[in-house]
Every structure is written in C-alpha cells, then in structure tokens.
Amino acid sequence: MPFIVSKTATNRRNEPIDMNGDHVYRASTTAPVNIAVIKYWGKRDPRLNLPTNSSLSVTLSQSDLRTHTTASCSPSFSPPDTLLLNAQPQPLSDARSQACLTSLRALRSALESTDPSLPPLSSYPLRLSSANNFPTAAGLASSAAGFAALVRAIADLYQLPQSPTELSLIARQGSGSACRSLLGGYVAWDQGTLLDGTDSKARLVAPRSHWPEMRALILVVSAEKKGVSSTTGMQTTVQTSPMFQTRATQVVPRAMREMETAIAGKDFPGFAKITMRESNSFHATCLDTDPPIFYLNDVSRAAIKGVEAVNEKAGRIAAAYTFDAGPNCVVYYLEEDGDVVAGAFKTVLGEKEGWTGEQGKAVKGAEGVLQGKVMETLRDGVSRVILTSVGEGPISVGDHLIDEKGEVVV
Amino acid sequence: MPFIVSKTATNRRNEPIDMNGDHVYRASTTAPVNIAVIKYWGKRDPRLNLPTNSSLSVTLSQSDLRTHTTASCSPSFSPPDTLLLNAQPQPLSDARSQACLTSLRALRSALESTDPSLPPLSSYPLRLSSANNFPTAAGLASSAAGFAALVRAIADLYQLPQSPTELSLIARQGSGSACRSLLGGYVAWDQGTLLDGTDSKARLVAPRSHWPEMRALILVVSAEKKGVSSTTGMQTTVQTSPMFQTRATQVVPRAMREMETAIAGKDFPGFAKITMRESNSFHATCLDTDPPIFYLNDVSRAAIKGVEAVNEKAGRIAAAYTFDAGPNCVVYYLEEDGDVVAGAFKTVLGEKEGWTGEQGKAVKGAEGVLQGKVMETLRDGVSRVILTSVGEGPISVGDHLIDEKGEVVV
C-alpha cells in the first residue's frame, strides 16, 4: 500500500518512509517566472545551452505567476518516465528533458552508492505533473518556470544536497533562462568560459529582501502565433548578424557591470535606463538577423511610447519597459510609483482583465498621461494585464498534483 | 523688355542674350529621387553633411518622381533670393540653402572674373520655383530631388562648367542624399576622409544603360506624422548606439564592395540580399538608439513578409525590400519579374491608386502569393503604389516655372 508523503512549505526535503516495494515517493514545488533585464540571446554551445553572454533577471512573485510541479517515483510505476502539463501528456524523451533527468538521477545514484540504506529512487520510473497558474496563451515564457520546477521537484524527491546554484547547472540544460528561476530576487546567469559549462550558472545578485519594492506590470498583447522560436532565432542571429558580436562582447558585459551597481545601490533610474537600452539592443540584433526577426509590433511600440510618456509626465525615470521574444511588454517600476506608472495604464486599460487583485485595486488611475494614438493602440491590442512584483525562488509545497497511489490529480 | 530664354532638353546651358539691364535669365531642370540600397545614416560633420559611411543608391525615373525647378535671376529682381515650392514660399535663409547658393555664386563669380564679357549674374538676386510631380504627403524623401534640382538649375543658369560629381559637393551641403541625385543609374556617395569634405561626393557606379531592367514598386504607407526627423535621428544614433560604430566601420564598407560587384555583374540576387540586409542593419541601429527610433510599423513588416513570400513562391530571390526613414516600402525587382513581384502585390492592392500607368497596366496579377494577415495588413495600410524604374540624372528642360517677366507660373 502506497504511503502518503506529506510536505510543508518550510520543509524542502522529501522524507518518504520505505514500507514496502510499491511506495510512491513524492515531492512538490512551485517555481517562478523570471523576466530578464539583460537578455540571453545566442548560444556558444547549443547542446549544453551555454550562452554567448551573461544575463540578469528579476524573479517574479509566484503569487501571480508560477509553475507547480509534483515529482514522484515508485518501483510500481511502469517505464518510461512521464510528464503531464495541465493534465496533458508532454514529451520527456527530448534531449533537453533527458539531460536534466540523467543529471539528477546521477546525483541521486551517487548518494545511494555512499549510503546503501537509501531507497534506490534513481532506478524507479518518474511520474511528473505540472500546472501553471497563468494562461499558456498569454505568451509568457513558461519554459523557465517549467524546467526550474521540474529540476527543483526531482531534486527534492531525491533529497539532493546541491545548492540552487548547483542545480541551476542542470536546469540550464533544460532551458537556458530556467537556471535563473532557481533563485529569487535579482539573479545573474554568468556565461562562464569552460567548455563543459560547469561555470555557466545562476548567481544571486541580491535577494528579494534587498529591494522588495520592485513591481512589474505585464501588458499581455494579443499576438498572432509566434513566428520564430527563440532557440532557432537566437542561433540565426549568432550566425548572421554582424552587429551581434559587438553586443555580446562589448555591450552586454558593460551593461552587466552597470546593472549590478544599480541593483546594489537600489538606483531605479539606473536600473531602468539599462533595462530599456538592453531590450532595444536585443531586438536590434533580431532585426539585424537574416532574415530579420520581429518580436515587437505596433502595440509593443505603443507601450514603449506609453512608458516614455509616463516618464516625461513624471519628470524623471519612474518606469522601464522590456520585451522578451514576443510582443508582451513588462513595465518595471517601484511600489511608491504605483499610481504614476500603473495608474497611467489603468486609466486606459482599466476594463481589461487583471486589475481585480489586491495590487491592481490599490492603483489609482492617472488621467491623460496616455493619449491619442498610443491610448487607442494599447486599448485595441492589449488583451489583459498582470500585476506582480519581485519574488522568491522555488518554494517546496505540500500540495501534490499526484496522489498517494501515483495517480495524477486533475 | 525681358527676353524669353527658351531651352531644349538636349541643351543644358542657359544662353541668355544680354539686351539690357532688366533681362530675366532662366534655366530649368528636372531632378530625380534616389532610393538608397546602402543607407546614409550618421554625420561625421553635421555642418558640411559629411557622412560616417559611404552609401549607394538607385536613381529613379523622372517620369514617375521628379522635382522640376526653374532658376532665374535678373538685375530687376529685388533682394532677397526667393524660393517657391508648389507656389508656396519656402525658407532660403537656412544654413543649408545658403551653403549651396554661396558656393554656386562663387563659381559663377570666378567665371565672370576671368571673362569680363559675361553678365554679372552672380550679383543678381535669384528667384527659384519648384514643383514635384508626386504628392508631398506620400512621405517620399523629396529633399534629395529638391536640392539636386536647385543646384543643377542654378549651375545651368550660371553656365558652370563643373561636372555632376563636382556639383554633388555643393548639393551634399543642402541635403546629404541630394548629392546622389546629380547622377543617373547606380550612384555611390563616397564618404571621403578630408576634413573639408572635398572628397565626399557622388560617383557613377554604373549608368542606367548598364542595367536598365531594374524596377521599383513603392508601397506608400499611410503613416502618422514622422516622429523623428532624419537629421536629428541620425545624430542621436551616432551619439548613443553602441552598435552603430560596427555598422559604420565594418558592415557598410563590406556591403559597398559587395554591392558594386553585384551591380557590375548585374547579379540581382546579390543586389537584393545586400539591399535587404542593409535596410535591416540601418533600422537595427535606429532601434539601438536611446531613445529608440522606429520607422518601420506593422504595415512595413507585412511588406517584408510579402517580399519573403514572393521569393519563397519564386524559389529564388526575385524581389528586395528597402525602407528609408519612414514606413514606405520600396521593392526592387527586374523587369522580367514584373508579374512575379509586382503581380503578387497587384492582386492584393489592385484597387489602390497607382496601377493605371503603362508599367502598372502591364503587370499581370499573381494570385495567392500574399495571404492571410499579410494581405489584410497591406490592404489596410497601403494608401497607394508607385511603379517606377532606374532612371537618368537631372534633365535640362525648356518648360519654365518662371515666365520671361520673372513671374512665377502657377
């Protein structure tokens, strides 16, 4: 009879009791989305997901955006390993997923070989189940949270002693930016120089508690399907953009230094300037790619004009825009500027979904900041907003998506 | 009594008969628009309009796009010098216009001092009148044709012996790209290295007759007012874009060499590839500017997708897009591909103004090449088309916009 493994949010480690051979071992975690302010674009090693430049992101609150994953294993499970996302079967046989599973199993196997009393979990088939608390259709990069949750959940299941930074080496092989979702707050991914990638990992620049006032307003843009996947796109950029090398070797290293200084000093204007320039630099190299890659559309441009209008109205830099490989705009601002920044957008987009939460309700509208064509384009093109803030790294939870019998809970 | 100076298209020189002191001397010319395939963006000397990189353009046919200018002078005219464009007074006191007028007068004055029998035209007030045969609202860069026509007309009025390349040094000071409109066919503007700019001038790469099959389809996009003037924009790019230097010092010099080879060999795929990459490189540095400059909009992007669809359908590179500092798309193609390229756009845009001329009527539609969102966006966003081709340099004409009494003909 399988044993119910219960976990609490404060107890990261799975502690199964090995009663008999068909026990189901479980561990669950939630992991955050991160939005880079210095962008990852270009791989020096596509197999190992080693980047051509370092990057830096803000981890966002899991209250608003998170992947919840339960990892389970049991001698009673039939191979192969399986993964469900929102109850739909997902491939696990791809090289990226396999790289993660193989690495995690190897770490567990090493533990088992030093302590023969440990149950041989590394030999059991894995059953994984994940769910996102945000709409997949929103076009938010979910692979970062997804792979971070997968790696963290299995590491907890296997009771691995590795640190989040060490685990980031594994998550990186699943999805590059996933390595940054193993940590909360302000997180760098140092590109590293070693051929085997063992120095290409996440590093805590500052915890959430250092600068907890950071807020993010995400303008979700109703986009057509994404034209170019980021994996394909970034390699085409590396191969064809003559200006890309300048970005990778000169622009980003300088931006990394300046951004770490800005975060250390809680210098929002500095943070904002680098963030906006970085986003533009990244999208410029996309445009310099052959054939050109466009992620920004007219709605994205209206969002940029909107942020510029907010800053002009404020007479200082109160807001920063950034765009990943898609048209959604992420606007960073400080809590104290909620009305000045989010308020300007609320006045125009107040009818859209996303303002009913605590953070959204607290925002007081700011009339007349966004006007004319910018206002119209945003109203026509933004489908919903998400209000969130800087948040913590993965959190171990007792709420399992797989029950004690190994069945997926829908 | 003023004397009517009649001129023919084959007789460039003004030959006034000096009957008495109130003669009106006149010369008229038309000058072409040129559309760069290697873009001018950035000045190393803003006053002298010396560029940070060389550029190269195709001169377009004056049957479709031209500025017509009459230059006149007379001792009977009252100062100051005047200019009318489409019968509306235009400023002539600006530094750029004055640089042109001063240089041309100096050349005339030098002639007069070597031959005292010449009438002292350099001392007479100038009366200039210009008209464009294309709508100003079309957002087509008219300053190139405008300054080329102004310089050519006054040079003819003054019977200056200078070559078009020598005159291009003067036109350059009016508007950088105007220097290329002094010549027909395929024209380079060599950036030069001298501080005084005397080696920064137009050069004939190949006459129209070398490759007369080049055609251009201009998709005129209904744009909001231009956000950033090119003069302001290019200087902001030079000052703020970290990737701009790479473009100016590495990307463009290579593109110039390759483009001259492609033109010499009448290699359209080569010409097209460089043209598209160059346009994207230029707009990438605009995006890399702080604050970012956007000239391309969703309609421009649909035009790019349209050209990509045409080339995919053809299974070869039959069309090339390029964009100046605005959303209009210029599509280059060869005469033999009229149906393949212009036909694909005619099927979608056949109801728009611009297809009723000889070239447009000859185009046979190509069904189904442009589809879905691209088709819809082009239909919604393109206001008219212009069909044209590679053309000749300025042409001296006998049709004057100022009558024998010095009155402007409306």
Notes on the structure:
The first copy, chain A, is of the alpha+beta class. Chain A folds into 2 domains: 25-207 and 393-397, 2-Layer Sandwich (Ribosomal Protein S5, domain 2); 214-389, GHMP kinase, C-terminal domain (Alpha-Beta Plaits, 2-Layer Sandwich). Helices cover 34% and strands 20% of the residues of chain A. The first copy, chain A, contains 10 helices and 16 strands. Chain A has helices at residues 95-114, 143-157, 164-174, 230-240, 244-264, 268-287, 298-314, 338-349, 358-361, 372-381, and strands at residues 25-32, 34-38, 43-45, 50-51, 55-59, 66-73, 82-85, 88-90, 126-132, 186-190, 201-206, 214-221, 320-322, 329-334, 382-389, 395-397. A 6-stranded mixed β-sheet of chain A has the order 8-7-9-6-1-16, with helices on one face. In chain A, helix 2 (143-157) crosses helix 3 (164-174), helix 5 (244-264) packs antiparallel against helix 6 and helix 7 (298-314) packs across helix 10. The longest helix of chain A is centred in the middle third of the chain and has 21 residues, at 244-264. Chain A is globular, with a radius of gyration of 22 Å. The two termini of chain A are 22 Å apart. The model of chain A is unreliable at 1-12 (pLDDT under 50). Chain A binds chain B through residues 224, 242-243, 245-247, 250-251, 273, 276-277, 280-281, 283-285, 287-292, 294, 297-298, 301, 304, 308, 373, and chain B through 224, 242-243, 245-247, 250-251, 273, 276-277, 280-281, 283-285, 287-292, 294, 297-298, 301, 304, 308, 373.
